[in-house]
Amino acid sequence: MIRRIRTRRKRINSRTLSLRLVILAPFLVGVSAWWLYSQVIQPQPIYITADPEVAYFLSSLSVFKGSSYTFIDHPGTPVEIIGTLILGITYPFVGDFGNSFTLSHIAHPESFLLIVRSLLTLASICTMILLTRCAVDGKHWTDELVAVAVAVLFFGIHPGAFDSIVHWSHNSFSFPAGALLGLWMVLLVVDKRTKSMRRIAIFGFCLGILAAIQIYFATWIVGAVVALSAYFVLNRQGLKIGLMSSLSITLAAMAGFFFSTLPIVARYQDFISWIVRVASHQGRHGSGLPGFTSVKTATTNLITLWKDLPLLFVSIGAVVTLIGIMTLRQRISMRSNPGVWAIVLGLTLQIGTMCVLVIKHPGIIYMQAVAAIFPLLLAGAISLMQISMPKMIIAQRLIKFGLSIGIFFLFGLALVRAIYNHNIETRQVEFVVEDIHTFIDDLALDLGRDRKSLNTLWVYGMPSDCTALWYGNQYADNVFAEEISSICPRDLYFNLWEYKVGLVDGTSAPVDQSNWDIIVLNEAALIDFPELTTLGRVVELERRLGTFGKVVYLLPW
Q1: Quick count: other Cβ atoms within 10 Å of Cβ 304?
Q2: What sign does the CA torsion over 248, 250, 254, 256 have?
Q3: For the whole model, what pTM was predicted?
Q4: Pairing of the two strands 518-522 and 456-458
Q5: How far apart are CA 280 and CA 293, in angstroms?
Q6: What are the pLDDT digits (tens) for 390-409?
Q7: Distance (Å, rounded) from C-alpha 86 to C-alpha 106?
Q8: What is the mean pLDDT of residues 453-459?
């Protein structure tokens, strides 16, 4: 009899999973279509996302020249390690006759980027499938709908979600790694079986690796500590066991962070100095006044984020308010479902902590970490709704149906918008590049020289493969000067922050001591560095390059 019941349950679960995957299938096709369009049909030049893609690419490649990782700000070490492993796998297949392994990759960086971007997309698809399967319980068809809605919510609630899964960046791991570990945390806490310290420690170790990808991801550790502590308290196992679990997960996370950053252990002092500067100063990357932040700055940053991400903030506010109402209604019976209440508390505090950090260091891209974990908070709120309103089944189903349809609509809208923006950005850059080449060609004719003989300096953000390669070479300790100079002998990178030009031998020199015929820059650079106007005659074009403003040229006096 017991075997028959178990067999029947397995069949029901199998049918439920099959239905969920059928509903999910169109969204997986949508994500795959986005990858196909953005990476195969209309791929963008590498210079559009050189920061940080080319920096990570060359840092990963630098190992094959006997160098160590020098790109340590985030610290991003696991991203570099993954890149090095992938480059190593390509070793038997890469290299033209007469070309070294490194030169072959530098001459064709798009090959490496296609591989790692594809892996990000594949990992995101796997995360969607696991979220669909595990994030929401229930056997009614509205439960299947809302399970899929939770799995695809990330893409509909953040405007940069689709772009993130096709760009090789530390921030791009928010969904494929962050949401996956968030789901693991949910399953670990909600599971009514005895929680062994071994499982907790393994989970904590993985959280440490996640934090090594992007230090802001340490908020996952905050969420896990709070959730596990709350669970043990609500489950009447005592505060002592809760504190032990917190200590275990924290120590394991520290071990995971240290293990995954071993390749940069010699640069720990630089990394810690960067952390201290960011934490103790205002502005982007700690470039502003001393202090964590000010009320005025925090308010301004919050308003800016609100304008950029109204849907995300409204959604978070609505779900947290709903959780607060249900907490008041169920405060006496919270101990009957300790896992759900604990995970909701942990995720809420995790999202709150992440929002505070982003308000201190504003940027839409950093809010991807919030958007990646928010679907799990929504799933927790749905579980609480089922607990709090056991007799209002029809109302629950209507809410889940309406919520699912809304999220599906947002997904479709976001996909269309991502394709449209990708197309517009690509075309705009193509027009800018055409104008730049025309201007430089005309300059060469006026000077009576060959175009290839002109010494051209490019600044950050300008559309040039040479700019991207020289920029990335800075984060590889300039070990690829020989390879890049063979491709870009007279197109060099002008570092505005250091006011120096990177030379073909890997060294640098002050711009006023460099031999140049034209500097290609932008309107934003002139605003941030007004002293540039003393270097030469300013010529502006009407063509604009996104947020950088108009394209600008400096010609010698």
Answers
A1: 14
A2: positive
A3: 0.92
A4: parallel
A5: 8
A6: 778 888 889 999 999 999 99
A7: 15
A8: 94
